[in-house]
Amino acid sequence: MIKIAIDAMGGDYAPKEQVQGAMLAIEKIDDIELTLYGDETTIRQYLTDDTRITIVQTDGVINMGEKDPISAIRSNRNSSMAQALTSVRKGENDAIVSSGATQALIAGAHILVGRLKAMKRTAIAPLIPTVNNTSTILLDAGGNIEIKPEYMLHQAYFAHIYAKEVLGVEEPKIGLINLGTEPGKGRPLDKEVFELFEQDDILNFVGNVEPKLVLDPPCDILISDGFTANIVMKTIEGTAKGLGTILKQELSRGIFGKLGMLLSIKNLKGFKKRLSAEEIGGAMIYGLRGVVVKAQGASKANGFYNGIRQAAQIVRNDVLGKVTAVIERELE
Amino acid sequence: MIKIAIDAMGGDYAPKEQVQGAMLAIEKIDDIELTLYGDETTIRQYLTDDTRITIVQTDGVINMGEKDPISAIRSNRNSSMAQALTSVRKGENDAIVSSGATQALIAGAHILVGRLKAMKRTAIAPLIPTVNNTSTILLDAGGNIEIKPEYMLHQAYFAHIYAKEVLGVEEPKIGLINLGTEPGKGRPLDKEVFELFEQDDILNFVGNVEPKLVLDPPCDILISDGFTANIVMKTIEGTAKGLGTILKQELSRGIFGKLGMLLSIKNLKGFKKRLSAEEIGGAMIYGLRGVVVKAQGASKANGFYNGIRQAAQIVRNDVLGKVTAVIERELE
């Protein structure tokens, strides 16, 4: 059995959607057991089945807009997030899924779960949609503003194994986000990473990739430093949001437009759904001694379920063990 | 009269669309005279009126995919782009509009027009659309991968004056592209720029802006270093392109979808039009001793006309003179 800790109280619609997501997961996935951390009374309101479910009572929630995530975690050791993270450290669970505040989850994971010895920097790796109905791993959308090329190499190994074992891509390709495709483009960091990746035997490096192909990239993994990849992620988000607004403004013009829009409503929902982080799944935090999956803060049941599904698959295929073996072999 | 040099041979659809754009400009703008640089015979095929038009015969074109822009310019001194740039240096024209290869235009402008003494780094500043039907200046989408905060300050002054004089924004606001809104976010460069801008008397600095607001920003100017802003620009482009593809895939599903799409076709065109760089205008290259406007490579007549209109307005309102005065006063 794969044991997964659920931070039931974290997220914009917690605990309702988290508990409902957990119910979906229990229904669809046979080899998991879930422990829900949170307020038992509230959780029980949404619990429709207690097969393979344990509830652990916790007190306090880390606020979504937490400005000082480290002290938020330190001063809320009995919160659902902190308790769920601690259970992974103690080996009581194999993984945790949370849609709580990202920075608090990253900080909490460092403090309470700990970093993999082999990886010097953790990374947060969301999945972004493609025009081909697949998804691309974006690295590092999280925190490492200044990073060494060799740490990026380790993150790339992680993504490589993740793409194989979780996304089912046989020969994952990786591209370096850059402002031109020719070798030698970009900042000193980009040039160094390019050389390092090109010489590497494990990675299938396709070279530089310009973000004008961001939703139709020639690879399964897009990598950059934590500043740039975060900017890319937020620009995709901002562009999608802005274009949605403009599309609505334009489509509803005139009587034919309104009628057309009415007929298209189901398809427009399909469009929205394909872009929703909900459907694609959570972001894994790479480089920890346990499996930590961050589901979107705005997750509804289905999105949260997708996060659980992902976490189960990461454990099932022993991604952490495989990554550690690869990096340790490389470091020898 | 405002005298504008037209690189008639540069661009994906040159010279046809460039000449037709010039014809539009002559028709709509009274105080301009245009000199078209290119192959006279071909140009004359599309010329419908020669009022305030001069043609200068040139030979050779800088290829759009030019890998080595500097030597392309040096070895094609008689090309339409090089000749048009040179005419600005000589004072024969006040401005140049080109939809030729961007890097060649930047390199050519440095070599043939020269840099403003007051500005240590040039910058390329495209306009991006907003959900409110206005546009935002994006800086520096061009070349300065490594840049000092004070050079970014000068670029910001330029954009400030440009927004006032060309876009007609009375009190232009400027935001720093960053991964969080709180002061202290980002790389060392971002922190330094933040402090510098905050203390500045000329700029209306709104602080850090996350690109999830990129099409609906709380400011008229978005600034970052040349690497980051270029990545932002290309991510917007890639997201818009990808979403367009996904939208088409989704909208055309089913019989109601197809019917709805038929009814919406005019509005979908309106949507596409609003996003088109065509409609918004060209990108000015800041920091040169003349007015250099880069129209999109894929410009059609209307897009090219918009570039000419912009160039005329920059000259009419003496943007260069005003920028130089401000920077020189600051440097004293």
From TrEMBL, chains A, B:
Keywords: Acyltransferase, Cytoplasm, Lipid biosynthesis, Lipid metabolism, Phospholipid biosynthesis, Phospholipid metabolism, Transferase. It is found in: Cytoplasm. Coiled coil: none annotated. NCBIfam families: plsX (TIGR00182). Catalyzes the reversible formation of acyl-phosphate (acyl-PO(4)) from acyl-[acyl-carrier-protein] (acyl-ACP). This enzyme utilizes acyl-ACP as fatty acyl donor, but not acyl-CoA. Homodimer. Probably interacts with PlsY. Its EC number is 2.3.1.274. It catalyses: a fatty acyl-[ACP] + phosphate = an acyl phosphate + holo-[ACP]. The keyword Aminoacyl-tRNA synthetase does not apply. Its main location: cytoplasm. It comes from Candidatus Xianfuyuplasma coldseepsis. One of its GO terms (biological process) is fatty acid biosynthetic process. Belongs to the PlsX family. GO terms for molecular function: phosphate:acyl-[acyl carrier protein] acyltransferase activity. It comes from the Bacteria. Gene3D superfamilies: Isopropylmalate Dehydrogenase (3.40.718.10). The keyword Lipid metabolism applies. This is Phosphate acyltransferase. One of its GO terms (cellular component) is cytoplasm. Pathway: Lipid metabolism; phospholipid metabolism.
